[in-house]
Amino acid sequence: MPPGGPPDVAAPQILAIAPDSARVSVTPREVIFRFDEVVSERPQSVTNLADLFLISPRDGAPRVSWNRDEIAVRPRGDWRPNTTYTVTMMGGLADIRGNVRNAGASTFFSTGPTLASTRITGQVFDWVSGAPAVGALIEAYVPPDSLRAYVAVSDSGGRFVLEHLAPARYLVRGFVDRNKNRGIDAGEPWDSATVTLADSTAVELLAFARDTIAPRIRDVNVIDSLSVRVSFDRPVDPTQQLTAGNFSVVGRDSVPVGIAGVTVGGADTAATPARADTAARRPPADTLARPRPTMSRPRPVNEVVLRFVRQLTPAASYRIRAIGLRGLLGHTGDSERSYTAPGPVARPQSDSVTTRTNQSPPAPPVRR
User: Fold this and answer.
1) Domains in the chain, start-ordered, CATH in brackets?
2) Which of 86, 107, 188, 362 matches a 20 to 30 Å C-alpha distance to 163?
3) What is the pLDDT of residues 43-58, one digit of tens each?
4) pTM, two decimal places
5) Distance from C-alpha of 83 to C-alpha of 110, rounded to nearest angstrom
6) Which of 341, 299, 303, 342 is nearest to 322 (CA)?
């Protein structure tokens, strides 16, 4: 109010952050983020405003206060002496009209006379899917003091940087914080590594949900008359060499079905090659696009294809058994599942019957 003027479609922009980056011997009461317009006190992307801010090293959830076009951030306790701090605002802040700022911002300063210059870089992956873990929370702390950890968040490529750490031996831990409580809960994927930091170092984290139950057969699906796809409810250790000895197939008459081979990864043996005209219509690859991040270790096994030495009997029941499958934590076990082969395909009507059905009725005789 008053109405008029062009509509506001721009996200809030930062005018200043106090204290400025690279300041030393400062102990501010709080860190101030100042914007060019009034920002929302309750962004839709988070539960509360404090979820958008990180203080590294942390001492609990930060205290965040809103004052129209300013946001003040301070630690739960006091700033520690002779410590280099990094205060980060993540993407997701919005103005009162709902325009969201996707870019983050940060500042760093030291409460002592020098700035720590060491750092830890790396990538975190969701090991089971093989994709980068976007938005994973990264912690680095000197055990056993996990409450005073240096923290960061991974970007869209799973990359992260923990800067301005003091030289020491750190436990680095990355996890997918699905419930956004900044802690590892049951079922959330995580991984950790120990590094000795003197200058800078890099680390790769392969996050997965810890589970002491061995993989079991989840589904069996037909591919063709000589092969089926077997999927598992938990990932299988990729270092385990799966062979025909890890599976057995027995019919109702207790006669085993020979297994000719096992294809790891679920390759579709019935797949047909792409048509040439389809390949010709495919758009050219973007040579400027960044390559997809890849892990240094292979993905866990989620499914395999079993190929048989003979065709399965249509509509017959079989018992498929997996033997000695090893999970990602080393636990092994057996499981089995019943499977019924597809029945015979119904035969279509003959052409002669179809022809007679589609013929027009004969014309009535002409009376003279």
Assistant:
1) 9-113 (2.60.40.3710), 116-210 (2.60.40.10), 217-268+296-340 (2.60.40.1220)
2) 188
3) 887 888 999 999 999 9
4) 0.79
5) 6
6) 303
